[in-house]
């Protein structure tokens, strides 16, 4: 992935917040002309909302595959994270000033289960703090972003198992044939406080 500048990342975080505000007040998606050409290229992206200051998850939705221009993926993911995450009620106007926003820009997923000698060796391919994981089996699919493993201090095997659970599958499904495992990397930009300073997140 081409590295994104802090200015580009900060723009995307502010775009995500503005997208939520517009959808909340006017019921429509934000329309913009972006100032950086790179943001018009297709990338996968996720938007994560967290309560402040305790940092509890309040919504997280995105696009694993680069199917939309990056800025459009962020706009739509932000709205979905705020109003369509089935784990949480829709975000209220009162809450908007007490959440922080994080944007993760993803590399295209790379399948790894068909590149190892044995499935038991899969954890050795995954670098905690660098890789996110996608697990797919039949109609089931689950994704965990790279920062999740470091936040919970998981090793790579635990990370695989937690991604299986996220997909609604059994914990060790990654050890079984028929389960597809993908890895990806991410650049992450986040607010330090609601509407506050934005920084590139090191994981």
Output the keywords:
alpha+beta; 9 strands; four-stranded antiparallel beta sheet; five-stranded antiparallel beta sheet; Dna Ligase, domain 1; Glycoprotein, Type 4 Pilin; 25% strand; 203 residues; 5 helices; 2 domains; single chain
Envelope shape: globular
Query: Main β-sheet, in a few words?
Result: 5 strands, antiparallel
Mind telling me the CATH class of the largest domain? Alpha Beta
Residues in β-strands, percent: 15-25%
CATH superfamily of the largest domain: Hypothetical protein ph0010, domain 1
First and last CA, distance: 17 Å
Helix count, DSSP H or I runs of 4 or more residues = 5
CATH architecture of the largest domain: 2-Layer Sandwich
Percent helix range: 25-40%
Task: Tell me the strand order in the biggest sheet.
Answer: 2-1-3-8-9
Structural class based on helices, strands and sheet pairing: alpha+beta
Q: What is CATH's topology name of the largest domain?
A: Glycoprotein, Type 4 Pilin
Description:
The chain has 203 residues and is of the alpha+beta class. Helices cover 28% and strands 25% of the residues. The protein folds into two domains: 6-107 and 186-200, 2-Layer Sandwich (Glycoprotein, Type 4 Pilin); 110-184, 2-Layer Sandwich (Dna Ligase, domain 1). The protein has a five-stranded antiparallel sheet with strand order 2-1-3-8-9, with helices on one face. Helix 1 (6-26) crosses helix 2. The two termini are 17 Å apart. The model has no long low-confidence stretch (mean pLDDT 96).
């Amino acid at each position: 992935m081409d590295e994104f500048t802090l200015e580009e990342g900060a723009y995307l975080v502010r775009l995500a917040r503005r997208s939520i505000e517009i959808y909340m007040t006017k019921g429509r998606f934000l329309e913009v002309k972006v100032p950086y050409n790179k943001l018009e290229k297709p990338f996968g992206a996720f938007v994560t909302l967290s309560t402040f200051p305790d940092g509890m998850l309040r919504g997280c939705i995105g696009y694993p595959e680069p199917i939309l221009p990056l800025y459009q993926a962020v706009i739509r993911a932000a709205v979905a994270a705020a109003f369509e995450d089935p784990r949480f009620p829709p975000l209220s106007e009162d809450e908007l000033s007490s959440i922080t926003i994080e944007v993760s820009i993803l590399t295209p997923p790379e399948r790894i289960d068909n590149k190892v000698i044995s499935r038991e060796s899969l954890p050795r391919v995954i670098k905690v703090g660098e890789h996110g994981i996608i697990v797919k089996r039949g109609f089931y699919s689950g994704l965990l972003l790279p920062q999740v493993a470091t936040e919970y201090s998981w090793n790579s095997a635990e990370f695989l198992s937690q991604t299986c659970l996220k997909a609604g599958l059994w914990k060790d499904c990654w050890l079984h044939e028929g389960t597809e495992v993908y890895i990806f990397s991410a650049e992450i930009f986040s607010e330090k406080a609601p509407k506050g300073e934005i920084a590139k997140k090191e994981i």
